Amino acid sequence: MTKRDHVARLYAAPLAEFTATRNRLAAELRKTGRAADARALARLRKPSAPLWAVNRLAITDSKSVAALFEAVARLRRSQLRDSRAAAEALRAQRAALDILVARGRAVLGAAGSSASQQALRRLSDTLMGAAVDRAHGDALRRGQLTEELPAPGFEAFGGTPVAASPRLRLVRSPGAPNPSAVDRQASAARAAEAERQRRLEAETLAREAADDTRRVSDLEAERARARARVAELEQQLRTARQAARQSAAAAKRARRNDEPS
User: Please, which residues have CB within 8 angstroms of residue 42's CB and are 6 or more apart in sequence?
Assistant: First the structure.
C-alpha cells in the first residue's frame, strides 16, 4: 500500500477519529520499515470541520465536485470572448456550488459539527479555491486537500466575474479589457451573489431559530412530563406512607390483643 493510499484512508476517516487513525496508520508504516512515510503522515494536522467536509464531498459526491470544476473551466475558457457562454457557465457554477454547500451542511451536521454560516462560507471558498488551482484541485479530487483556501478573485477568471467570498473584493487584472457590457455583467453578477449570500444567511438563521424554538418546546414538554411524574410519585409516596401507618397501627393493636389480661 502506497503512502497516498494511507493518506486516503486517513482523510476518509470520521473527523472525530482523525488523530487515532493517523497514529495507527503511522505505526503501520513504521512496522513495515517505512519510517520516512510514517513521519510525513504523522505531521498531517487534523483538518478543520469545513476542510474535512470538503474532502468528504470529494469522496462521497465526486460527480458534483466534477460538475463544479467543469463549470469553472467553462467560465475560464469563455473569458471575454463570449458573454452569453460566460453567463451560462456562471449560472452552472453557482448551481453546482449551491448543491455542494447544501450537501456540505448535511455532512457537517451528520458529523456533529457546526454548520454555521461562517463554516459554510469557508467550505464554499475552499471549493472555489480548489476549482481554479490545478494542484489543489487534484488533491481535492483525491479527497486529500490539506488546507482551507480563499475564494478566487476576479483576476482568476481572466476578467469574468465569479462567486467570490463577500469578504474579498473582485479585482480586475492590470491591462485586462474593460468593455462596458462586461462591466455591467460583472456588476449584476456581484449584486446577484451578494443577494444570494444574504438569502443563504437569512435561511440559515431562520433554520437555527426554528431548531432553537423546537428545542425549547421539547424541553418544556419534557419538564411538564417530569412535573407530572413527580406529582404522581408524591401521591404514591403519600399513599404508601398512609398504608404503612395503618399497617403499623394494626400490628400494634394485634400485639396488644395477644397480650395476657
Answer: 22, 23, 26
**What is the domain partition of the chain in residue ranges?**
3-42, 49-203, 231-261
Number of CB atoms found within 10 A of residue 101's CB: 18
Summarize pLDDT for 101-118 with one digit per residue, the tens.
999 999 998 888 888 899
Alpha helix ranges (H) inside 79-179: 83-110, 117-131, 134-141
pTM of the model: 0.55
d(CA 143, CA 216): 39
208's CB contacts (< 8 A; 6+ apart) are: none
- Does residue 163 surpass a pLDDT of 50? no
Residue for grid cell 486529500: 144
Residue in 42, 45, 164 with CA at minimum distance from that of residue 97: 164
Radius of gyration over alpha carbons of the chain, in Å? 31
Length of the chain: 261
pLDDT digits (tens, 9 = 90+) for 135-151: 999 999 988 888 899 88
* Cα 98–chain centre separation: 13
Q: What is the largest CA-CA distance in the chain?
A: 124
